[in-house]
Amino acid sequence: MTTPEPVLLTELRDSVLTITLNRPKVNAFNNEMIQACQEAFKLAARDPQVRCVLLTGSGCVFSPGQDLAIVLEMGELSFRYHLRQTYNPMVLQIRQLEKPVLAALNGAVAGAALGIALACDLRIAADTARFVVGFLGIGLGPDSAVSLLLPALIGLGRATEAAFTNQPIDAQQALALGLVNRVVPAAELGAQAFAWARTLAQGPVRAMGLAKRAFNKAMLPNLEQVLDYEAHIQDIAGRGAEHKEGLRAFLEKRTPQFPSLEG
Fold first, then answer.
1. pLDDT tens digits, residue range 65-102?
2. Where do the structural domains in the chain lie, given as residue ranges?
């Protein structure tokens, strides 16, 4: 009997903890992978040998976010409850970790995975990467801090356009917008990301942590409140006809036919 691979891989080398999403085919999040990520960030926080975290995805995709087949199975489960147990704590873990967190982004980055990537301190992307907000395409509002972090990085107008149109942002556009810090050839992403993470790990990590605390205070003082409000909004959207149609259309691989507004 073959033992299945873990949904999350971790490796500590040269003071860099590499966390790799590993759920084929596209690293879509399920509860097991989310819980494993939360445990990995707890380890990063308490282990003095960890001086930098590198977050990436296996294969050719970082992650499209939540596994939507699981959303369908959730039925009437509260989105607010789900977010409070899953993505909200992970976003806070990343922002509150007083060590540098670098995201190495390959392929598609969408939905909740976009929020996780934006929560990281720095982002390096493969030239094949593309970024999609994703939520409105299935009749939901943004969550996982996307409503705060995306406008903070690229401006409200551009963030609104990206959310409303659901059009992909390619790697070069992302670099020009300030969504990512660096773009490298896909074949070099792993090596260049690790080299950058190792350089960060050799730096003044305690001072970096204090700087991160200051950035949080200056730019994201209401992060917890925004996460909670997103969860509230998602509960409203999740009960609506637009979400039901958007989810069915996504799973059936067709264009959604959103219903007319009532009243």
1. 999 888 777 666 789 999 999 999 999 999 999 999 99
2. 1-184+214-263
Q: Secondary structure of the chain in the HEC alphabet?
A: CCCCCCCEEEEEECCEEEEEECCCCCCCECHHHHHHHHHHHHHHHHCCCCCEEEEEECCCCCECCECHHHHHHHCCCCHHHHHHHCHHHHHHHHHHCCCCEEEEECCEEEHHHHHHHHHCCEEEEECCCEEECCHHHHCCCCCCCHHHHHHHHHCHHHHHHHHHHCCCEEHHHHHHHCCCCEEECHHHHHHHHHHHHHHHHCCCHHHHHHHHHHHHHHHCCCHHHHHHHHHHHHHHHHCCHHHHHHHHHHHCCCCCCCCCCCC
CATH number of 1-184+214-263: 3.90.226.10
Please list, in sequence order, all residues whose beta carbon lies within 8 angstroms of the beta carbon of residue 62, skipping any fewer than 6 positions away. Answer: 21, 27, 56, 103, 105, 106, 107, 108, 109, 113, 117, 129
Banded model confidence at residue 250, pLDDT cuts 50, 70, 90: confident
Q: 94-143 pLDDT, tens per residue?
A: 999 999 999 999 999 999 999 999 999 999 999 999 999 999 999 999 99
Q: What is the pTM of this model?
A: 0.95
